[in-house]
Amino acid sequence: MAMWTLLGARGVDMLAWESFGEQWITDVRKQLKLADVRALTADYGRLPDLTQVDCARDVVFTWNGTTSGVVVPDGDWIDEAREGLTLCDATSAAFAYDLPWAKLDVVTWSWQKVLGGEAQHGMLALSPRAVERLETWSPPWPLPKLFRMTKGGKLVEGIFAGETINTPSMLAVEDALDGLRWAEGIGGLPALVARAKANLAATERWVAATPWVDFLAESKAFRSRTSVCLKLVDPRFAALPADRRAVVAKRLATLVEEEGAGFDIGSYRDAPPGLRLWAGATVETSDLEALFPWLDWAWAVTSAELVAA
After folding, report:
1. What is the mean pLDDT of the chain?
2. Is 125 in contact with 133 (CB distance < 8 Å)?
């Protein structure tokens, strides 16, 4: 929605180091068909060179790469005197990081990720600079009614005051409000950040003591504390052909799920075969610590099958 209504007024730098960032690049090139697009990309586990970002242009990026476990370390690379807009997908970063809001012009996040709410519901925050763009820029492409945020050249402020085109589920809304009440009750954003940090610390202790697994992120400086992505580093696994590695990694995750010890812990379909653990604030550190022995057990079974094969 934000890209469809805001981009096109100037050149844009698109940052991608995982699947969702790549999708945004596809959108601006193949759907919006923008002419002046620079794609700054990196493989899974890495970040692109953030010093190459030109803040005289618009910049689109994900704060936390949900499918790669790689997060931007800070907002220092964003120019405070920028001429372009910064559009940040903070889906799995909001409520887990102290975002530099003064440097972000458009921020989107979901009810689902860090607060555990309903999927397919999202939030949009706009800076005054983004509102100015909306009121002074008319994209050359047709906009669906759902995407239109202005009328007569002025922001439709009702969108940000609870007015809707189609009424969403009030149960889903109440669920999101319940999550916010819980967050406020335990201490607000500082408590949520602390819980996510504690979960990452527990995972780091297990990984440090476990020879067959490592973080997909190549540097601790940009290791995600919510979507923790892990790679299998046992030499026997590394020696397998790519298709076989995918089968083995799926077998590992399936064994854990069959025991009811962990669900949906396999890596994202586009990511290297491995594990992905959700470690946001709604997850108890004790539950993660209870999972780790099951992972060790499942790898023992899986690795024994590799030897037998």
Report:
1. 94
2. no
